[in-house]
Design brief:
The complex is a heterodimer.
Chain A lengths: L1 E2 L6 E2 L4 E2 L6 E2 L22 H35 L4 H19 L6 H21 L7 H25 L4 H26 L5 H25 L2 H11 L2
Antiparallel strand pairs in A: 1-2, 3-4
Chain B lengths: L6 E3 L2 H9 L7 E8 L5 H14 L5 E5 L4 E5 L7 E2 L18 E6 L2 E7 L5 H20 L10 H7 L3 H4 L29 E8 H10 L4 H20 L5 E9 L13 E4 L2 E3 L7 H15 L2 H16 L1 H5 L2 H16 L5 E9 L3 H4 L2 E7 L8 E8 L2 E8 L5 H12 L5 E4 L2 H12 L1
Parallel strand pairs in B: 5-6, 9-12, 12-14
Antiparallel strand pairs in B: 1-4, 2-7, 2-13, 3-4, 6-7, 8-15, 8-16, 9-10, 9-11, 14-15
Helix pairs in contact in B: 1-11, 2-3, 7-8, 7-13
Classes of the chains: A mainly alpha, B alpha+beta.
């Protein structure tokens, strides 16, 4: 029998952290003294992760079957009526892209980078198809491609930055706002460009003006804010 | 059970518990007996079957009715299992074919995990007692009398105690608890439940309680409140009252043989806004609160309270799936949300002398709850008191404070936890 020097409580086994305060309890029993210990509890398994996986798999299989039926049905009806694929191309491509999105969000791809790239490609294919079915590529090159690519790139960069941070907490929120500003201004640029209203200098000034307050707030949080309020915010938002 | 019908209604408490079941708040509590030799599963299964012959109203499954859940008799037989999950976890009693309880064995221990929708601690202990008796009869050949169970006795064991002592003319108690202190704990992942058991010599505890001229329950409740006050002092700038939920076994005040829920909760509290409390002051307050409330007259008010909540027309007309949706939030807001934590005392466990030498210890674990992430339950057997904390979070601030306080009174405390085995794996992983 050993005692925790801090709590004063007695534990069966020595040479391990105290179960209440994690203070290392020193080795006190002689080697010969150690009796063969009977386990009090089994090595427990937690069935919830595999249970959740099973439920998700079931939902995914159901959705896949539904998508298959819907796509075949729409293609068949369209072909029967028009003797060629007309409107069903739009709906089928959308449904299939939706299926792709669900595939990437259901946890079958473990790596977050691959998930982000996958969803980005899925969107590109969808938008490319929708534009192409109209006869010629109208808005895909000037609008859809840069916006989707930009969103994907910003998301990947944000995720890399968050992963590389040594202290997350408020930085996660701060960098989120920075990423949001950059993305919004990126989209803004291409929309203005499409309308032939681009003014790069003006655009740059607006972007910087938006980024400044975010940066200032981040600096204030880091150096100016009292510790007590920081703690409170951290508690409220589980940072 | 009602005559030849093979189903019965849940009692008031059971109706509430059945609606709040979730993967974390399983409403399961554990009662276990550790014997002196390893358990034989085959004999245990046989003992369980014999026990169910004695208590046929336990051979039921929970079913969903249109308005309420109910228990339906079944031909299936529950199977004893080797323990493999965290205590009081991972049993969905609403699943088809599942029983509202399970029997585990592990090394020398027989553990019975029961849903609170079926019975309370007293009813559970009676069932466990019979199970262990039958097992010891098969294994060690201890003598048992063949009981003839009359219909009257079955009737008495399944009666709804709340309804029996419900008096319409009595007013419900006026209790306003307000905003109580909450421990700053974060939930652990689903499926995990952390138990810390403190083993304390009863004699030392009794002697100490006698110095303050109170019972052990009052003494420990006061220490519990003091620990919570200390934690509040340390962690929170705004002071709030510390409110403890203490279930009272009604069978000691209103004679009943029922094996269903028959308890009400009283809520001793200390308002930290009034200033710093000394231990003696806390003990005095708790003592007065207990003697003020624990009289049949006052307790009848609490019975009234728990029955009228079920009688409201709106609640009765609400279909049970909708009840399932609203009950958890209502319960955590008006029920558990009003308490800081819960402490219940299952009392002294006594077994016939021929069984005593085969039973090493008897323990109980509280049901996990989200509103009160830590709860404690105490029981004493032979010369030891077993105080078990059930915790849905990894932080052991309350356990630490509580057992340190007891230790400071000069009483020996031995600590055991269920995390040890899993920590072993972690430690060796860290070393590698």
């Amino acid at each position: 029998m050993a005692y925790c020097p801090k709590c004063g409580i007695r534990v069966e086994r020595d040479n391990r952290p105290c179960p209440l305060c994690s203070f290392p309890i020193p080795k006190v029993n002689e080697d010969g003294e150690e009796v063969v210990r009977v386990r009090k509890f089994p090595k427990t398994t937690n069935p919830y992760p595999s249970y959740m996986r099973r439920v998700l798999n079931r939902i995914f299989i159901f959705i896949t079957l539904l998508v298959f039926v819907a796509v075949s049905l729409m293609a068949y009806i369209d072909y029967e009526l028009n003797e060629m694929f007309t409107w069903s191309r739009y709906s089928n491509l959308s449904v299939l892209a939706g299926w792709g999105f669900i595939f990437f969000t259901f946890g079958y791809v473990k790596n977050y980078y691959k998930v982000l790239i996958g969803i980005g490609l899925d969107m590109l294919i969808l938008l490319f198809g929708l534009d192409l079915f109209n006869g010629s590529l109208d808005w895909f090159i000037p609008l859809a491609f840069p916006i989707v690519t930009g969103t994907t790139v910003v998301a990947i960069l944000y995720w890399s930055v968050v992963r590389a941070l040594s202290v997350r907490g408020f930085n996660v929120i701060g960098f989120f706002f920075i990423a949001a500003v950059i993305l919004i201004m990126w989209i803004n640029f291409f929309i203005q460009n499409y309308q032939n209203k681009t003014d790069p200098l003006n655009w740059l000034i607006v972007t910087v003006l938006q980024l400044l307050p975010v940066l200032l707030i981040m600096l204030y949080v880091k150096y100016g804010m009292p510790e007590r309020i920081k703690q409170k915010i951290a508690r409220k938002f589980h940072l | 059970m009602r005559g030849d019908k093979s189903w019965y209604q849940l009692d008031n408490a059971g109706k509430l518990y059945s609606s709040i079941i979730s993967s974390r708040a399983t409403t399961l509590f554990r009662l276990s007996a550790t014997l002196t030799s390893p358990i034989y599963p085959d004999l245990l299964q046989e003992a369980l079957e014999l026990t169910l012959q004695r208590f046929p109203f336990f051979k039921v499954q929970l079913k969903q009715g249109f308005f309420w859940y109910y228990f339906e008799g079944t031909d299936q037989m529950p199977q004893v299992e080797k323990e493999r999950y965290y205590p009081c976890m991972s049993l969905s009693i609403k699943k088809r074919g599942s029983f509202p309880y399970r029997v585990y064995y592990y090394n020398n221990r027989i553990a019975l995990e029961l849903s609170h929708s079926m019975t309370d601690g007293t009813g559970g202990l009676k069932f466990l007692g019979e199970l262990v008796k039958q097992y010891l009869h098969l294994k060690e050949g201890i003598p048992i009398e063949q009981e003839e169970i009359s219909d009257e006795q079955l009737e008495a064991e399944t009666e709804n105690g709340f309804r029996r002592y419900y008096d319409k003319s009595i007013p419900a108690p006026k209790t306003k608890l307000g905003n109580s202190f909450k421990l700053p704990l974060e939930l652990d992942k689903k499926g995990y439940y952390h138990i810390v058991t403190g083993i304390i010599p009863v004699e030392a505890l009794k002697k100490k309680a006698k110095e303050y001229d109170v019972s052990i329950t009052i003494f420990l409740t006061a220490i519990y409140i003091q620990s919570l006050l200390t934690i509040q002092e340390r962690t929170s700038r705004r002071k709030r009252p510390v409110v403890i939920n203490v279930p009272v076994n009604m069978r000691s005040y209103f004679p009943s043989d029922t094996m269903r829920n028959f308890f009400v909760s009283i809520t001793p509290s200390i308002d930290a806004r009034l200033g710093k409390y000394e231990f003696e002051e806390i003990i005095q307050e708790v003592k007065i609160e207990f003697s003020r409330l624990l009289t049949p007259k006052k307790l009848k008010q609490y019975i009234k309270q728990s029955v009228i909540s079920e009688k409201s027309l709106m609640l009765r007309l609400m279909p049970s799936p909708i009840k399932d949706m609203v009950a958890p939030s209502i319960y955590s807001f008006f029920g558990e949300g009003q308490y800081t934590s819960g402490l219940s005392n299952l009392g002294i466990v006594r077994v016939p002398s021929e069984m005593e030498k085969y039973i090493e210890r008897v323990e109980c674990y509280p049901p996990p709850s989200i509103g009160n992430k830590v709860k404690a339950i105490l029981t004493s057997y032979k010369e030891h008191m077993y105080i078990s904390f059930g915790n849905l979070s990894k932080d052991r601030m309350l356990e630490r404070e509580f057992f340190r306080s007891i230790r400071e009174l000069g009483i020996q405390v031995t600590i055991e936890t269920n995390d040890e085995e899993n920590e072993d794996g972690l430690l060796s992983e860290m070393r590698n």
